[in-house]
Structure formats: C-alpha cells, structure tokens
Amino acid sequence: MGKKDGVGSNPNEALSKGDTAEALANAMNNLDGRFEDVVSDAGAAAKEGLKSSYVNYAEWRMSFIKELQVHGQNLSENLKAGAGETKKTDDDNTNDFESSRRGLSRSVNH
After folding, report:
1. CATH number of the CATH domain containing 41
2. Selected residue with higher pLDDT from 105 and 20
3. Does a structural domain hold residue 3?
4. DSSP code of residue 1
C-alpha cells in the first residue's frame, strides 16, 4: 500500500483504507431489504403478465445481494486486522532492528 519505494505496508494507511471500507460496508446495511422494496414496487407497477418476473428476479438475485453485504464487512475487518498486525510487528521489531537502520537514506515504514 502507499509508497512504492519500500517493502511492507504503512499501518496508518491500511487502517485508513479499513475505515473507508467500513463506511462502504455500512452504506450497504439493509441493501437486501432496499433491493427487495425496489423490486417489489417495480413489480407492483408492472403489467399483470410481468409481475411474476419481478418476484423471480428478486429471489434469484437476493443471495448475491446478501453475499455482497458480507464481503463488504469482511473486507473492512480484514484491512483493519492487517493494519493492526503490521503495527504490532513494527512495534515488536523496532528495537531489534534499530541498529540495522543506520546508514539508510530513507525512513522505514514511515
């Protein structure tokens, strides 16, 4: 993530991406209910011969809509967990590798 001049990731940037993913996941809350309402309204306005097509379409797509909601939440959780583990690894190794940093022309993970 972020800068392309090093190895690893920036935990702060990863956490920010996790926050963005969480906002998107939250925007998808009740997406299945809203989808069902829209399709139901469209079906109610349809000509008599087409009403069942809307019901069939809603049933066909509903599992995908629910799966999308779960994927959005999982993405957020995974990004945040990865950011936390990256920060923990950096913190755990700060002292161990401090002497190796001398002489580098750039910061590491900053």
Report:
1. 1.10.287
2. 20
3. no
4. -
